[in-house]
Specification:
56% of the residues lie in helices and 0% in strands. The chain has 14 helices and no strands. The protein is globular, with a radius of gyration of 21 Å. The mean pLDDT is 94.
Length: 272
C-alpha cells in the first residue's frame, strides 16, 4: 500500500486525538485570530480601505497574548550573564526623547536632518508606538525596537515605502541570530518574520512586476544584517550630527546600499 502513495506523502501518519476541538502542538496554529490574520495579510490585495500598517497593528495585538514572557525574560537574563555589552545596554535603559525640531537642527545631509526632513515632510510622528515605561527586559527591547525602526530604514538603506520595509525587516532577521540565543530570537521575532513575509507573498501574488525589487530589498537587508554589529543596541542620538556614511561607520553598519524601491512600491494601489 505504501508503494501506492505519492512520493511526497510517504511517511505521514494518521493523526488521532481525544480533543473535540482543533488543537496543535503549535501555539501559533492554535490561535484562531492568527490563522485569520495570516490568510488575510498574506493573500489579500492592497487597498486604501485597509492600510498595510493596520496589518502590523493587528498582528502585534494578537502576538501579545502568545509571547512566552517568562521564558523570554529567563533567556534575556541568561544572555546578559554571557554578554557584558548587552547587560550594560539593559542597565542604562536609554530611551529616546528627541523632537523633530531637534533633528532638523542638525546639519543638512546628517542622519538627524535626513530623518527630521522625512518626518516633517510627511507629517509623521516620531514614535510608531506611544512611549511607555518598560517593566521588564522584553518590554524594553520592544520599546527600543519601535523607537529605532525608522532610523534603521535610513542606515540600512531601505526607502520609506512598502517594499523598502523589507530592508530593515531582513536586516533584523539576519542580524539578531548572530548575537542572541537561537531560542530567544525565535520567541521575540515572530512579528518581524510574519510582517516581512506578508509583503513578499502579496507582491508575488498580485504585483509580480515588482517582485524582482522585493528580492533585491531582501538581499540588501541581509547584507547589512550579516555584516554589521549588533545595531539593535545602537544609540542614534550620538551620531545624529554626522553625515550618513560617517554615522553608519560609527554605528557599526556594514554593507548598506541605498535601494530605491519607490517606483516598484507604486504597484500597490494604496500608495498611488
Amino acid at each position: 500500500m505504501a508503494d501506492d502513495l505519492p512520493y511526497l506523502a510517504r511517511g505521514a501518519r494518521p493523526m488521532t486525538t481525544d480533543s473535540t476541538g482543533l488543537i496543535s502542538s503549535s501555539a501559533y496554529l492554535n490561535e484562531p485570530r492568527l490563522r485569520d490574520w495570516l490568510a488575510t495579510a498574506f493573500l489579500r490585495k492592497s487597498g486604501k480601505d485597509t492600510p498595510t500598517t493596520l496589518d502590523a497593528h493587528k498582528l502585534y495585538g494578537i502576538l501579545a497574548d502568545l509571547f512566552d514572557v517568562d521564558r523570554i525574560e529567563a533567556l534575556f537574563t541568561q544572555e546578559r550573564a554571557r554578554w557584558p555589552e548587552l547587560d550594560r545596554w539593559f542597565v542604562e535603559g536609554f530611551s529616546s526623547s528627541f523632537t523633530v525640531d531637534e533633528l532638523l537642527a542638525n546639519p543638512p545631509g546628517s542622519l538627524g536632518h535626513i530623518f527630521g526632513t522625512y518626518l516633517r515632510a510627511n507629517g509623521f510622528e516620531i514614535d510608531i508606538v506611544p512611549r511607555f515605561e518598560p517593566k521588564n527586559q522584553f518590554q524594553y527591547f520592544s520599546l527600543r525596537s519601535g523607537q529605532t525602526h525608522d532610523l534603521e530604514h535610513i542606515v540600512c538603506g531601505g526607502g520609506f515605502d512598502i517594499i523598502g520595509e523589507l530592508v530593515p525587516y531582513f536586516g533584523r532577521l539576519s542580524n539578531l541570530p548572530r548575537f542572541l540565543d537561537a531560542e530567544l530570537v525565535g520567541l521575540i521575532n515572530p512579528g518581524q518574520l510574519l510582517g516581512a513575509l506578508r509583503l513578499i507573498s502579496r507582491t508575488g501574488l498580485h504585483y509580480h512586476q515588482s517582485f524582482p525589487t522585493v528580492l533585491r530589498a531582501m538581499r540588501c537587508g541581509m547584507d547589512v544584517g550579516e555584516q554589521s554589529g549588533p545595531y539593535f543596541m545602537a544609540k542614534y542620538e550620538d551620531v545624529f550630527h554626522m553625515p550618513l556614511a560617517e554615522a553608519r561607520a560609527a554605528l557599526g553598519i556594514v554593507g548598506a546600499n541605498d535601494l530605491d524601491s519607490s517606483e516598484a512600491s507604486l504597484a500597490w494601489p494604496e500608495y498611488t
